[in-house]
Specification:
18% strand, Rossmann fold, globular, 211 residues, alpha/beta, 30% helix
């Protein structure tokens, strides 16, 4: 398949996909993209805005994975915004790029897609599948996803072991944050395999909007 991997980070979701597919990764941070390229030298890596790239190139791919920025949706960020009457994190509007991409893919894309994000502090506007403290929106059924340890309470060594990346040679980056942002590789593999298994429309699950 031709796969588009948006907001690719260092490639947690892509880690176990192998090299039999033609994969294009889009990441806007050069340093993070360099790490991705080190791990996946056969992939096409593009440094640009993933949201605009999706709009311009969505019809060139068979499977699209998108992990839009999550902080403005995060329960943790919101819960720590105001504590004891003092502002610790400035309140912000939720970034609606997330829902723009879900609606766009569901309305226009003819292939299979997965949009991933954190569990939000508000009731999601479009019903997702929930697993391993994340939301997933797909146009195919995903069920019985394996329960996996996130390691977010551990240190850099545990996170590297769980996510399968050694960042010891890289400097001037927030390694803990980068690893926490990685989708667990086994989750990424499970969802890709489900997409590959789908043969008929009877096995397609459309999002139920605003329920």
């Amino acid at each position: 398949m031709k796969i588009l991997n948006l907001y690719a980070g260092i490639g947690g979701n892509r880690k176990l996909w192998g090299n039999e597919h033609e994969i294009t990764a889009v990441e806007n941070n050069q340093e993070i993209a360099n790490i991705y390229k080190d791990y996946f030298p056969d992939d096409i890596v593009i440094i640009t805005d993933a949201h605009q790239y999706l709009l311009d190139h969505y019809n060139e791919y068979d499977f699209i994975w998108s992990s839009p920025p999550c902080p403005t949706h995060s329960r943790i960020r919101k819960n720590f915004a105001i504590r004891g009457g003092k502002i610790q994190n400035k309140p912000v509007y939720p970034n609606m790029v997330l829902y723009q991409e879900i609606l766009f893919l569901d309305g226009y894309f003819q292939g299979k897609y997965c949009v991933e994000n954190v569990i939000s502090w508000y009731e999601p506007l479009i019903r997702p599948h929930e697993a391993n403290s994340h939301y997933f929106w797909t146009n195919f059924k995903i069920h019985n996803m394996p329960k996996l340890k996130r390691g977010h309470d551990g240190g850099i060594i545990e996170l590297q072991k769980i996510k399968g990346f050694d960042l010891s040679k890289y400097n001037n980056i927030d390694k803990v944050k980068i690893l926490r942002n990685c989708v667990h590789p086994k989750t990424g593999l499970y969802i890709l395999n489900r997409a590959l298994e789908i043969k008929t429309q009877e096995d397609v699950k459309q999002p139920k909007l605003f329920q």
